[in-house]
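Supplementary Methods. Inverse-folding protocol.

Structures were first reduced to a discrete structure-token string of length 249. This string, shown here, constituted the complete conditioning input.
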């Protein structure tokens, strides 16, 4: 909004109809506040949304924590996302991301531990990666593996990531239509990628034939998060079924 003056240098204020207004809250998402540090201390996988909102139009900050140690290995893969991502570093030591650093990532970017020496037990980094979910169709992601020998792309696992409320949302893509807790598409797609990448076919480079070592999955734990979400949904349905049986007995 700009102010203009007339020839007498009198400030002319814009009409109210010209001013932009922030719309009132819809009530669809209750305002919440969490501590990133408290939430990260209890999460079991990387890129866990720290708020329970991941529907169309939601701003979704996801937390990740990496640390070093003599036996730690994280590997590397590449990620592509139609949604823009912003990384905030909430604390680090001996890492390539500095404490307090804010960075907008490229649509296609490499992912690893971001530690300078992942064998250093004093090395760590805590970040949030935030994306805004699309309200239109066409939100997609891809996980990419490159050969450790010839560096050429050997796996590209691309998947639809349309969020709940978007025109192309598919409730059965990563779960069931009656799920109480939706699978987060980034974790579910990443779990599928890890299974492909670590299969016998996925480790062999189709270009040079090199047998790649498996991608370490323990530091990422996507599959555990997917399985836990499935168990949570099963538990919810078990409880509602028991309540209905009691009501009709």
């Amino acid at each position: 909004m700009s102010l203009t003056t007339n020839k007498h240098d009198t400030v002319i204020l814009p009409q109210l109809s010209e001013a932009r207004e922030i719309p009132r809250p819809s009530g669809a998402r209750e305002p919440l506040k969490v501590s990133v540090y408290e939430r990260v201390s209890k999460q079991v996988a990387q890129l866990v949304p720290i708020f329970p909102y991941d529907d169309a139009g939601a701003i979704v900050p996801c937390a990740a924590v990496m640390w070093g140690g003599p036996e730690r290995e994280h590997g590397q893969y590449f990620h592509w996302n139609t949604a823009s991502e912003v990384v905030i570093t909430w604390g680090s030591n001996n890492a390539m991301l500095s404490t307090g650093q804010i960075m907008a990532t490229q649509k296609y970017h490499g992912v690893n531990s971001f530690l300078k020496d992942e064998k250093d037990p004093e090395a760590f980094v805590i970040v949030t990666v935030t994306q805004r979910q699309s309200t239109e169709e066409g939100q997609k992601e891809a996980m990419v593996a490159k050969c450790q020998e010839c560096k050429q792309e050997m796996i590209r696992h691309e998947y639809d990531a349309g969020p709940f409320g978007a025109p192309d949302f598919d409730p059965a893509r990563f779960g069931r239509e009656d799920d109480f807790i939706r699978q987060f598409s980034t974790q579910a797609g990443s779990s599928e990628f890890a299974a492909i990448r670590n299969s016998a076919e996925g480790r062999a480079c189709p270009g040079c034939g090199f047998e790649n070592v498996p991608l370490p999955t323990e530091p990422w734990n996507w599959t555990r998060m997917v399985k836990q979400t499935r168990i949570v949904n099963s538990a919810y349905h078990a409880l509602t079924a028991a309540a209905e049986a009691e009501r009709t007995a």
